[in-house]
Automatic annotation (TrEMBL):
It comes from Wolfiporia cocos (strain MD-104). GO terms for biological process: endoplasmic reticulum to Golgi vesicle-mediated transport. Residues 7-104 form the Longin domain. Residues 139-199 form the V-SNARE coiled-coil homology domain. It is a lipid-anchor. SUPFAM superfamilies: SNARE fusion complex (SSF58038), SNARE-like (SSF64356). Belongs to the synaptobrevin family. GO terms for cellular component: Golgi apparatus. Its main location: membrane. It is found in: Endomembrane system. Keywords: Coiled coil, Lipoprotein, Membrane, Methylation, Palmitate, Prenylation. This is Snare-like protein. The keyword Cell cycle does not apply. GO terms for molecular function: SNAP receptor activity.
Amino acid sequence: MKIYGLTILHTPLSQPSMPLVTMMDLSSFSFYQHPSISEFMSFFGRMLAERTPQGGRESVQEGSYTAHVYNWGGTEQVVGVLIADHKYPVCPAFLLLTKALDDFMAKVLTSSYAMPSAISFPEVQTYVQKYQDPCQADAIMHVQQELNKMKIVLHKTTESVLEHGERINDLVDRLNVLSTQTKVFYRTTKEQNSCCVLM
């Protein structure tokens, strides 16, 4: 089980999302893959943050990753995205997101909910390191009752999140925010994964 990244984003209505704080742990990948993987995960997280409804919680699988997204809702317009492997359990992922967003809201945002110009939230690194072991989520299990009342939508594929007729391959190809190297990396891993079928 592995957490690859945790990002907290600001998602103003009708505007692109903006990462506020992020922490990636790409130590399980080759050093030379880090830039492409980091760029793709950032793109994937931003896309899902912008498409998750306010107050919504969703888990979306893409390739060998699962992104867990929690849109805080309200006037803050803050979304947490946790990207992990498929083995990382859903419940601890959302407990971690809830804890991270609670702490972020309490420590970073003012009572007026104005987004500060400079954000310091070093706790994001602690969360990614500490919760690599999902059993550590026991420390925040008191949130479990609230979480059980919420609806978590599990999408089997990224395509189920995309708008009618949209495809992830088309988005990757036409977006200017992704480098050519990342686009090639995405297509190569997609082709490599398509040859293997588990029975």
